[in-house]
Amino acid sequence: MTRVQANLLLLLAGAIWGAGFIAQSTAMQTLGPIWFIGLRFAVATLVALPFARWEQMRAETPVSRRDMAGFVLTGLALFAAASSQQVGLLTTTVTNSGFLTGLYVVFTPILTVLILRRRPHWVIWPAAVMASVGIFLLSGGTLAALTVGDMLTILCAVLWSVQMICVGVYAGRSGRPLALSLVQFAICGALGCAVGALFEPISLAAITGALPEILYAGLFSSGLAFIVQNIAQRYTTAPQAAIFLSSEALFAALFGVLLLGETISTAGYIGCGIIFLAMLAVELVPELLRDRRRDMPAEV
Question: Which InterPro entries match (predicted)?
Answer without folding.
Answer: Diverse_Substrate_Transporter (IPR051258), EamA_dom (IPR000620), EmrE-like (IPR037185)
